[in-house]
Write a structure and sequence with these properties.
It is a single chain. The chain is an alpha+beta fold. It is about 30% helix and about 25% strand. The protein is built from nine helices and 20 strands. Strands 1-18-17-20-8 form a five-stranded mixed sheet. A four-stranded antiparallel sheet has the order 6-3-10-11, with no helix packed on it. The protein has a three-stranded antiparallel sheet with strand order 15-16-19, covered by helices on one side. A hairpin with a 5-residue loop joins strand 12 and strand 13. It is extended and about 105 Å long. The two termini are about 65 Å apart. The relative contact order is 0.12.
Length: about 375
């Protein structure tokens, strides 16, 4: 009888546990951390399972030749309304990142047959404010300041050939380049022979953007497209160029991204009349061999692999061992003198007299006044 009662009570307890577990599971909800969830894009804006608008964000500009970064609007580039600018986290603020929206309009699947005009900036030689803006552009190109753009929580890369037939993909691209007075091209001016006029700056006012995506036809998430053309972005690459656009066509919102067009050059010195038209093209292509989870691999693989600096490691170890040995010798000599002095003491009165490093115990082990009151305050959380 007792066994039956015990088994019945245990069965009742088990039922209560299962019921409470079922209730708790019904209230559980999961979420993705910001920036970690994959975004599915499509060319149908009416679908709720995907989005058609691809947002391009700009970041601060930095240079290896200077420790001072500048925000995007510091230079006179085309700007967008910053009312809906994303908020940076603490790490981005500490590292000096300033993410802002850009005026580039990109819709998924809408490749540009011709270049799109973004905006036109005009500078007059007699206008002091205009010449200050031109001077800032010259300074930025002379010190090789780099753009940093973001699409789908991923950096926009500029890939170019390097030594040994390899390609290097940089997470930034220059705002322009400079050819010195001797005709030597600096930094990015070496990529083309068109940038060869001495003492001239070449503004990279045009970018060819190539967006690669996985169409998801063989993936489980592909069913959410509902037959629409779409996918997930796996890479965004661009090629910066300098193009001298026709001012008349630019006013009509038209431009030509032909390679035969000459570059846009700004003289290195003096006040100038200049008109800079910023433009871009967008091309979409399918790349199913790369999955969304491994889309960062091409950036990591293209980075140069540095060798282990064994000499620096051994040098640091030798210095640490040498300093540790010196500190140990000083401590041993001090303690040896004190111990030898204590051993020479014969009288009891002299033995009670303490000196040297042994005087510390008098301060460490001395009981405080009103110790009980102090312990009560510390136990209750009152710090005095």
């Amino acid at each position: 009888i007792h066994f039956y009662k015990r088994s019945n009570s245990s069965h009742t307890m088990r039922c209560w546990v299962l019921a409470s577990l079922a209730v708790s599971l019904s209230t559980v909800s999961c979420f993705y951390l910001p920036g970690l969830a994959p975004v599915t894009y499509c060319n149908n804006p009416d679908l709720t399972t995907c989005t058609s608008d691809i947002k391009l964000f700009v970041n601060r500009l930095n240079s290896e030749e200077s420790v001072i970064p500048y925000e995007y609007h510091h230079f006179d580039f085309c700007q967008a309304d910053e009312a809906n600018a994303p908020s940076e986290n603490l790490g981005q603020v500490v590292f000096g990142e300033r993410i802002r929206p850009s005026p580039y309009k990109i819709a998924f699947g809408s490749s540009s047959d011709s270049c799109e005009v973004l905006c036109t900036k005009s500078y007059v030689a007699s206008n002091t404010d205009d010449q200050k803006k031109v001077s800032l552009l010259r300074k930025g190109m002379f010190m090789n300041y780099q753009h940093h753009w973001i699409v789908d929580n991923m950096p926009v890369t500029w890939c170019y050939p390097v030594e040994n037939g390899q390609h290097y993909c940089s997470t930034g691209f220059p705002m322009g380049c400079y050819v010195d007075k001797k005709g030597n091209p600096k930094d990015a001016c070496v990529i083309s022979r068109d940038y060869s006029t001495a003492d001239n700056y070449y503004v990279f006012n045009h970018v060819d953007i190539v967006i690669s995506y996985h169409d998801g036809k063989e993936e489980d998430w592909g069913k959410y497209l509902n037959g629409a053309k779409g996918g997930r972005i796996v890479s965004v690459k661009l090629t910066p160029r300098s193009i001298a656009h026709d001012p008349a066509q630019a006013k009509e919102g038209k431009c030509v991204s032909d390679v035969a067009k000459g570059p846009l050059a700004i003289p290195g010195e003096g006040a100038v009349d200049a008109e800079i038209t910023y433009s871009y093209t967008v091309t979409f292509r399918t790349q199913n061999e790369v999955k969304w989870s491994s889309r960062w691999d091409y950036i990591l693989e293209s980075m140069p692999h540095t060798n282990i600096q064994w000499f620096s490691i051994l040098n640091s170890l030798v210095i640490v061992l040498f300093l540790s040995g010196m500190v140990a010798m000083i401590l041993l000599r001090t303690l040896h003198k004190d111990i030898a002095r204590y051993n020479q003491i014969d009288s009891g009165e002299d033995a009670q007299e303490e000196f040297g490093w042994k005087l510390v115990h008098g301060d460490v082990f001395r009981p405080p006044r009103k110790g009980m009151l102090l312990s009560v305050f510390l136990g209750s959380g009152a710090q005095l």
